[in-house]
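Board notes (copied after class):
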Amino acid sequence: MADLGNYTNTSEILKKYQFRMQKKYGQNFLIDANILRKIVEAAQITGEDCVLEIGPGIGTMTQYLAEAAGQVIAVEIDRDLIPILEDTLSPYDNVTVMCEDILKVDLAALAQENGGRPIKVAANLPYYITTPIIMALFESHIPLASITVMVQSEVAERMQTGPGTKDYGALSLAVQYYAKPEIVARVPASCFLPRPNVDSAVVRLTRYGKPPVDAADEAFLFAVIRASFNQRRKTLVNGLTNAAGLGVTRGQVETALKKMGLSKTVRGETLTLKQFSELSNQLLDAGT
C-alpha cells in the first residue's frame, strides 16, 4: 500500500473512491510525511504502546502509527471513510477501526483493550470539536499517558498560555490541571488537502500522575473557572455571584478573595491555576 503522506497518493485514493469531503466533519487530510513522522516521534510511541487515534480519515497517520505501535484503535465517525480505511490499512493486522462518534464511545472499555495500562492518544482533530474531545478524554479518567494532537495554532497557544494574556482562559486552566502542554511542531496550511484557512500546531499533553493543585472538588473548581471567564470584562465577584447554579453569594466571594490577599475588583484572567484551586476550596468551605 502506498504511503499516503503526500499529495499524489492522497489524491489518488480520494479519486479511486470518489470521496467527497464533508464540511460538517471538518475534514482536512495531512499530506506531509515529515510532519507525520514528527507526530509519531513527539508521541513517543513504541512497540509496547496501545494508541487511540481519533479521526483517522483515509488512514494517513494510522499507517505511521501502525508501524510504530503494538496496537492502534482508530475511531472514525464518517461511515463513507470505512471502505477506504479497510483498503489503506489492509497490510496492518494491529489496527482496529471503529465507526463511532468518539464523544459517545465507552472510553473506559477501550482502555481495557490495553490491559489497564496507560494508552496514548494521537489525532489530527477537527477544529470545530477539539475542546470537547480533549476534555472528554481527561474527564473520563481512563489510564492515559499522553495526548498528541494537531489543532488550530490559536488553540495550541491557548492550551499553554498563562495568566494576563488574551488567550488565557478556561481551556488553558483545564488542560494545565490535567497535563503538561508543549507545542512540538508548527504546521502551515499548505500541509493539508484541502487547504484550511488557518495554520496548525502539534501539541503534546503529557498527563500528570496527580494534578499540580489540590482541589477539594474538581467539578466545582471547573464550574468556578468557567463562570470566571464567561464574561471576561466582569470582575470575579460579579462573574461568580451571577453564575447560574454556582450558588455563591457576593459576601462569600469577597471574603474568600480577602483571605487570599486579592482585591475584590480582580478579574479571573489574572488568577493562576493554584489561586483558582484555593478560591474554589474557600467557597466550598463557606457553603458547608
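Comment from the instructor: The longest strand covers residues 144-152. The chain has a mean pLDDT of 93.
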